[in-house]
Design a protein that fits this description.
alpha/beta, 50% helix, binds S-adenosylmethionine
Length: 351
Amino acid sequence: MAIDSEKLNAFIGQFVGDLGAAVHAGMVVIGEKLGLYKTLATGPMTSAELAAKTKTDERYLREWLASQAAGGYITYDAKTNKFSLSEEQAFALAKEDSPAYVPGAFELALGSLAAVPRIAESFRSGAGMGWHEHDDGVFHGCEKFFRPGYAANLVSSWIPSLQGVAEKLESGARVADVGCGKGASTILMAKAFPKSHFFGFDYHPKSIEGARESAAKEGVSDRVTFDVAKAKEYPGGDYDFVAVFDCLHDMGDPIGAASHVLRSLRKDGTWMIVEPFAKDELKDNLNPVGRVYYSFSTLLCTPCSRSQEVGLCLGAQAGEKRITEIVSTAGFTRFRRATETPFNMVYEARP
Ligand SMILES: C[S@@+](CC[C@H](N)C(=O)[O-])C[C@H]1O[C@@H](n2cnc3c(N)ncnc32)[C@H](O)[C@@H]1O
């Protein structure tokens, strides 16, 4: 077989970028953990100045700075030998409340990759791996990665895209956030709608503990309750609004969960399903966003579903058609895609 050297070179070029990105995940996690980006965002400085300000070893720091400059995550001025962050780099790397804050994604990636030996074994055995069995970086990274997107969209766009829900939340409603993880979405809603009461449920006790701590810190414990419960078993039967964020596909029995949501809703209630953005056909998901989701799905979502009863394994790129089937099989009579972002699809289901 004749090798097309141009195609080979293009592939090797891609490989170098990917290899750099793979190790870069660790670099970003270090940068965030030690406050390096935040300190650098205060102005241009040499490695010695940054080391003094962050109480870190200058030699290690110099190597890290070089990796960051080579990767375009920080800016280097050869004339002054100083490093800095551009406005855009600072927005994405140093401002935790910015909608484009990215370090959480790398923490999630690094935490997920810790499971590679076990997941490789699961390819042979077919065994599952529960969310709760992962490295802590998965829980922290997931919250940090998803929160900016929720902060940018949930209250301003997703909830208003649902029929009559914003009005109910403004006047006082009972809301369940199922599979709430560390509660980022629950707390954002509670802050925006002080007359409503929010119940966050997740099967993972450590995440619920974290969610309770965050609610106390954010001063919303009076209107938010977090409890450990599975999606098919959470208590309450008169919710006006139930939401699931990026977790329906993680469940072993999403149809069972959907049936439980239906039972728990008032007749005029609404279920909002937020899922990763995906088209129905594999060929249409073969792009950079699809690559991110399929990879996380191999390490996190598919094994999580496999570890639970039924083990349907929807995967993180299920697409609208499969979600429609799940929701209508469970007995919902109305379903539509309410809105979307490049990363998420938002569906509205009603009894
Ligand atoms: C990708 S995380 C999303 C967490 C959170 N909703 C967010 O958007 O940040 C998936 C969550 O689903 C939870 N989960 C998985 N299966 C569950 C089940 N059967 N019942 C309740 N929670 C479940 C996991 O513990 C995890 O917190």
